[in-house]
Amino acid sequence: MRRPQKSCPFCESRVRWVDYKDDRTLGRFITDQGKILPSRLSGSCARHQRQLSTAIKRARFLALIPYIRGHQG
Amino acid sequence: MPRAYEAVYIFDSTLEDSAISEKIDRYHGMLATSEKPEVAHWGRRQLAYSIGPRENGYYVVSHFAADPTRLPEFERALKLDEGVVRYLITLHEHELGAPPQSEEELAAATRRDDDDDDED
Lengths: 73, 120
Known about the structure:
The structure holds two protein chains of two kinds.
Chain A: H1 9-12, H2 23-27, H3 39-42, H4 46-61
Chain B: E1 3-12, H1 17-30, E2 38-51, E3 54-66, H2 71-80, E4 84-91, H3 103-119
Antiparallel strand pairs in B: 1-3, 1-4, 2-3
């Protein structure tokens, strides 16, 4: 089964490199728990998905986005 | 050969602004860069999660071109400083410093994607 093609949101907005400091954009690609959204759901191309995953991990380290959301303590 | 770096520092938000600027100047002085590093102050903002007792941090982003041999000493100084909550140094070269994708590149990328899809 072939899943329908989704267009990459990064390619569409002509992003060459996903910025780890842009927490607003990265926030769109994490789940309610704070997990990285798979490309199957986000539609990102492989190249941008790789950059995205590195960017999210860097942003987490810098406390720009949470490691876990909805967790107290 | 100098390489382009980007550094993000999170300082303790209880420090005075002047003390933070003074620290940044001191650390950047250790790098012996030919050009003055580009410094952007984001200011105080809430951390996404608490780091120890801290809920807020003072964010500073800087760009500089430095010799890689200078970095270990620079990082050591940052690590020992109690006022620096966290720091991240990344290379800022090639794609990172480049402008957004042009029309042709986008077309080329789309073609590559299509080719990939044909294989499965």
